[in-house]
Q: What sequence folds into this?
């Protein structure tokens, strides 16, 4: 799934906070969640309220502050480059919605 | 038997005065009969549970018992347990049977503990009231018209109702501590990295941490002794020598420096909650602790920062639910993209979808710096505030939640009001610090109040020490909700 992707509309939503119905549909598309036209307005109102809360942290002067991506400033550990997993395809495919001959079935993607 | 604390039951089992099978049967019966009222469990599996109890009795008979051998423990339905349905409170995983054990479950299995059942929770741990669960809300044993808190609300209600002597939970912004406070029990969120996240369904990976819920600090220590440990399968699991979290329980509190952040004692706390916390402060002074006024100037930004970082990580983590490899697939769809969009729209509830949308937005091109990067920088400021405070004090104290348990339905229409329940608990996971909630009295309507304690990194034993000494001097933790204590 694409999570880092350009929104076509370049208005600065960070300052005006007023999401439009079209914005909601764009975000929903990026998130691969269907939002029906009837639901869009309610989603827009709730998200606008949450972004108004989030706006409180945007006014803070953070020049020169190192971003903290993680609670620990330790380097990740490495392991030996060798196979440790056994083949469990059957076990894992038993919980899949649709499989055939060991393959996950999805709608045709190439015509 | 259900009136005993976990530590007491462990002694009775070790002395062979009771068997695990009789204890487990009794608690299973209690779980079954109370579940229509409390809805604390999503899945009970009598055969699996009793088989573990029998195995525990055999192990005890061989003289090979460990501290928790034969003790029934309820597990939040976020922990994968091999062969158990594991739903995470979601329609998306309604029929998902876990193909392997999470680290936490492995540890309890190795200890010979008994899996009593899988507890209800807010969907994907996103909620503060247990009302976002696909399986319906959990009810608070102190007042069944009220919420038990969330997201580990089923675990908290099961412990408070004397159904399970202990339970597991997970905490991302307060999901162990807030329900513990609202149900009058203890809950501990360890330092980030103490319990491996392997097999724990991910919400926000830089914040998620497993921890125990139980009636006393001593019981929490016993549970954490089992849950904690290094695990190479979680790259953020901390490699430290194992410790006995009970080792400081008996230490007197004389000389302990307790910080009272002025930001946690303002208008945002209900008067009855503030009174109970004040009573605890006086008791701790009586026990020899020194109170020091401190300031955490940036903690007021914790909620806004959290609602950028946690949804951002959630939008990434939950992208795995695509209707292809596991989980719900829509019945009706067109092309592959539509299969994703429809399966996710049907499988996720409203709150989960909201958070995925927020996260998707704050990570999208053009908004990343203004939201996500800014949130990471303010997160650093919040962590720095705590680092400075721990130069002066040993523990930071306040209220766990701004009010006692609210009514079901009171806050479901306004997500922002719901989010503000976590105003005092969110800073600790942002900084990665250990924190716990301890019962410290009752509010005006007879509902429990939680005392919130935050420690420096890896100082769980110190928090447990303070809580245990407080519990030797008070009996709040022994009070049971009406009708559940006898």
A:
């Amino acid at each position: 799934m694409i999570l880092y992707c350009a929104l076509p509309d370049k208005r600065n939503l960070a300052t005006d906070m007023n999401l439009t119905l079209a914005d909601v549909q764009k975000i929903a598309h990026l998130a691969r969640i269907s939002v029906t036209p009837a639901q869009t307005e309610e989603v827009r109102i709730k998200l606008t309220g949450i972004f108004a809360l989030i706006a409180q942290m945007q006014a803070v002067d953070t020049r020169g502050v190192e971003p903290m991506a993680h609670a620990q400033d330790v380097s990740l550990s490495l392991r030996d480059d060798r196979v440790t997993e056994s083949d469990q395809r059957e076990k894992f495919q038993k919980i899949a919605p649709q499989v055939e001959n060991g393959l996950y079935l999805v709608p045709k993607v190439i015509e | 038997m259900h009136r005993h604390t976990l530590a007491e039951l462990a002694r009775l089992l070790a002395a062979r005065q009771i068997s695990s099978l009789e204890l487990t049967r009794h608690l299973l019966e209690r779980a079954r009969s109370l579940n229509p009222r409390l809805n604390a469990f999503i899945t009970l599996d009598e055969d699996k549970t009793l088989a573990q109890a029998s195995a525990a009795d055999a192990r005890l008979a061989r003289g090979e018992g460990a501290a928790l051998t034969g003790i029934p423990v309820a597990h939040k339905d976020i922990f994968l347990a091999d062969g158990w349905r594991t739903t995470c409170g979601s329609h998306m995983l309604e029929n998902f049977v876990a193909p392997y054990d999470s680290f936490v479950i492995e540890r309890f299995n190795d200890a010979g503990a008994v899996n009593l059942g899988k507890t209800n929770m807010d969907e994907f741990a996103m909620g503060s009231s247990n009302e976002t669960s696909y399986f319906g809300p959990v009810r608070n044993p102190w007042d069944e018209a009220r919420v038990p808190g969330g997201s580990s609300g089923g675990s908290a209600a099961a412990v408070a109702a004397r159904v399970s002597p202990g339970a597991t939970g997970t905490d991302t912004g307060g999901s162990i501590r807030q329900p513990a406070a609202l149900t009058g029990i203890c809950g501990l969120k360890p330092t980030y990295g103490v319990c491996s996240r392997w097999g724990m369904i991910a919400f926000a990976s830089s914040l998620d941490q497993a921890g125990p819920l139980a009636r006393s600090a001593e019981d929490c220590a016993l549970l954490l002794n089992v849950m904690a440990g290094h695990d190479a399968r979680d790259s953020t699991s901390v490699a430290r020598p194992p410790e006995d979290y009970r080792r400081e329980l008996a230490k007197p509190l004389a000389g302990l420096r307790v910080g009272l952040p002025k930001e946690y004692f303002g208008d945002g706390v209900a008067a009855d909650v503030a009174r109970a916390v004040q009573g605890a402060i006086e008791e701790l002074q009586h026990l020899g602790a020194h109170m020091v006024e401190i300031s955490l100037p940036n903690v007021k930004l914790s909620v806004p920062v959290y609602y950028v970082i946690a949804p951002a990580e959630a939008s990434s983590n939950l992208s795995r639910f695509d209707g292809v490899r596991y989980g719900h697939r829509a019945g009706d769809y067109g092309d592959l993209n539509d299969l994703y969009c429809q399966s996710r729209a049907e499988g996720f509830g409203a709150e989960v979808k909201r958070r995925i949308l927020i996260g998707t937005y704050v990570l999208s091109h053009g908004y990343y710096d203004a939201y996500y990067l800014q949130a990471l920088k303010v997160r650093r400021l919040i962590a720095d505030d705590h680092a400075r405070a721990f130069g002066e004090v040993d523990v930071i104290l306040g209220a766990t939640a701004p009010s006692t348990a609210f009514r079901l339905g009171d806050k479901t229409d306004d997500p922002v009001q719901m989010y503000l329940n976590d105003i005092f608990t969110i800073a600790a996971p942002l900084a990665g610090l250990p924190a716990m909630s301890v019962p410290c009295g009752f509010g005006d309507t007879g509902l429990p109040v939680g005392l919130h304690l935050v420690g420096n990194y890896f100082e769980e034993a110190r928090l447990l020490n303070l809580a245990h000494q407080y519990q030797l001097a008070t009996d709040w933790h022994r009070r049971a909700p009406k009708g559940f204590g006898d």
Chain A touches chain B through 58 residues (CB under 8 Å). Confidence is low (pLDDT under 50) at residues 1-15 of chain A. Residues 22 and 40 of chain A are 9 Å apart (CA to CA).
